[in-house]
Amino acid sequence: MNGARFISIFFEVFWAKGVQVYLENNETGGWRTQCAVYLKVMTDMRDELTGCRICAGRFAATATGHAPNPVVWFAPGARILIASQAPGLKVHRANTPFWDASGKRLRDWLGLDEAQFYDLAKVAIVPMAFCFPGYSAKGSDLPPPPICAQTWRARALDVVPDVRLTVLIGGYAMRYHLRGFTNVTQAVAGWRDHPPGVFALPHPSWRNTGWLKKNPWFEAEVLPRLRTAVAEVLND
Q1: What pLDDT does 24 receive?
Q2: Looking at residues 79-103, what average pLDDT do you find?
Q3: What was the pLDDT predicted at 43?
């Protein structure tokens, strides 16, 4: 076989200045894996994200007057994506996502124990803002700064290309990921109409306990199907 006619070179994991490159050259002259011609370059940006300080001035001006602390909890290989809102104060201090009562409720909804939920090889948690946005002068939670998603979200999602199940938590994540989003209740109720492998959930905060009582169909219909989907993805 003429080497000029057919050359196959595959670098499974090649690091050069922080860039991970998967390459395969073949007789087409393109770069391919299986049947798709491609050149995939994935930059692991987690260290860069951890050091982000673009919102330092914004956070200093809040009632909490805190410094940025991006909570970065995702890694290549994860099969489940938790697309959430933003860390709260407890998460900011613990540097661990959903390290509060809402996290316990969320894990129950998913049918996961703590070890499974925090296993980076299984679950990626990518919020709309990686830092605690702070409190307003009235003590209310401030919304995720849009600049965070604009700066980091696409790159963060590129780090987890193997996701098979996406769980959208709250209106900010739903607005980003769902076409035609109108409101949280309709998005949660319309779980059958979402793209395969996508579920929309209300935020598991205690503030939504009233919503849960008003919408019993969520626990009766949505959660059993969600738990089944989670188990199928992790056990496959």
Answers
A1: 37
A2: 96
A3: 52
Question: Which residue type, as a one-letter code, is found at position 176?
Answer: Y
Quick one: CATH architecture of 46-235? 3-Layer(aba) Sandwich (3.40)
Distance CA 143, CA 9 (A): 48
- Both structure tokens of 27: 């007789």
For the CA atoms of the chain, what is the radius of gyration? 20
Supply 99's token pair: 């390290």
Triad 86, 79, 166: Cα angle to 5°: 50
Which sequence spans correspond to the domains of the chain?
A: 1-43, 46-235
Q: Which residues contact 151 (CB under 8 A, 6 or more apart)?
A: 52, 54
d(CA 163, CA 160): 6
